[in-house]
Amino acid sequence: TRNHDVNSKGNLTINGVDTTYLAEKYGTPLYVYDVEDICIRANAFKEAFEKEGIQYQVAYASKAFSCVAIVQLMDELGLSLDVVSGGELYTALEAGFPPERIHFHGNNKSPDEIEMAVKAGIGCFVVDNFHELTWLTGITQTLETSMKVLLRITPGVEAHTHEYISTGQEDSKFGFDITSGQAEKAIAQVLDEDRLELLGVHCHIGSQIFETSGFVSAVDEIFNHLQEWRENTGFTPEVVNLGGGFGIRYNEDDTPLPLGHYVEAMVRSVKEHAEAKDFPIPEIWIEPGRALVGEAGTTLYTVGSRKSIPGVRDYVSVDGGMTDNLRPALYQAKYDAIVANKAQKEKTETVSIAGKCCESGDMLIWDVDTPVLEQGDILAVPSTGAYGYSMANNYNRIQRPAVVFLNNKSDQCVIERETYANMTRLDRPWKKTEAKTK
Ligand code: LLP
């Protein structure tokens, strides 16, 4: 659904807006989001659930991209919100997101973060381990309040994706392990606590998944154990949360499924199991991050220096890199590029796009076909809307880019570009300490 086109000047447009105009107006690097693309994707998930006639929540995993504006957009779209830290929770509350639709994740939530979430009255706390279960119990007692809880379990399903973003396998830092009996023990412990209300179970098998089979296996695993847990503890879940991870198209090799297919497969499988094993049909919750915002985002760069090694490679450097897109360095992620001001020109050369950081690994794209690239050209890299800004950093003291939202063919800045002054704002001068005399 990428809303990319070429105008009469031969320039790349997104949502009808000329990207060279955006580069000129806001400077580069620049993240540009097509809001309409996000709306289409949110609605695709919602419509799929509604067609199945099942109770559901679609929670946007805000780790993919968290800022006040995106959180407000997700609220407008009627989604719930998954946060994983005090910072994401703070952003959500600042944005005015209804706390009762916020879900809190994380494998090492601090007592301060837990207290913040309990005080805010969030809708659901996803308990990851016994340690935080103890904290949460204590904090709800001290504050004389209660909390709805999901237990995160590792269903022992291997998602076919990069090992750094696969999380459902047993040997994982996340969640309660099933086979050793941890999950059942946790269920019993939560059921015992008056201040905790056990809604159900959660699992997240991984990210950038292109098949429905992993989700179906996760449902199989969960229900096989639910039978046992019901016998031993009396617990039946009101909610089964199947996490996120729905794959998107980063480049031409990626072949994502229509979003509704995942929902259909999940719902079918949950219904089958519930009926066969005589459980009430639970609500199904999901937590897409990249599937909502990934393809909606495009990064614009300005081309700078070039280095040609005859017979080997041509390096073309842009004014950003691993500071605004860590994914190539971290996951060998592959991206495409479009030369925004030469969008219709023939691709006559093969170059490698380098970032500007002092690090050989700072390469955005290896061997991509482009029209002849010259200094000042605007290079657009699509599908950078998820885990781009959110993993951006100040390595080499490079400022994080601005973020612009586009809808109805108009542009608005939702995050300002960082300044050099921002960079030293928290720094304090060095003072030599005199040696202490006894
Ligand atoms: N729910 C849970 C519990 C998660 O851990 C994640 C991602 C999601 C939902 C959302 O996954 P998504 O739908 O966005 O794939 N930085 C990496 C991905 C790390 C994802 C961690 N958890 C990347 O750039 O690919």
From TrEMBL:
Substrate binds at R290, R327, Y331, E359, Y387. Residues 31-385 form the Orn/DAP/Arg decarboxylase 2 C-terminal domain. Signal peptide: none annotated. Its cofactor is pyridoxal 5'-phosphate. PROSITE patterns: ODR_DC_2_1, ODR_DC_2_2. Pathway: Amino-acid biosynthesis; L-lysine biosynthesis via DAP pathway; L-lysine from DL-2,6-diaminopimelate: step 1/1. Coiled coil: none annotated. CDD domains: PLPDE_III_DapDC (cd06828). The active site is at C358 (proton donor). It catalyses: meso-2,6-diaminopimelate + H(+) = L-lysine + CO2. GO terms for molecular function: diaminopimelate decarboxylase activity; pyridoxal phosphate binding. The keyword Lyase applies. Its EC number is 4.1.1.20. Residues 37-293 form the Orn/DAP/Arg decarboxylase 2 N-terminal domain. Keywords: Amino-acid biosynthesis, Decarboxylase, Lyase, Lysine biosynthesis, Pyridoxal phosphate. Pfam families: Orn_Arg_deC_N, Orn_DAP_Arg_deC. One of its GO terms (biological process) is lysine biosynthetic process via diaminopimelate. The modification N6-(pyridoxal phosphate)lysine is found at K63. Belongs to the Orn/Lys/Arg decarboxylase class-II family. LysA subfamily. Homodimer. This is Diaminopimelate decarboxylase. It comes from Alteribacter keqinensis. The gene is lysA.
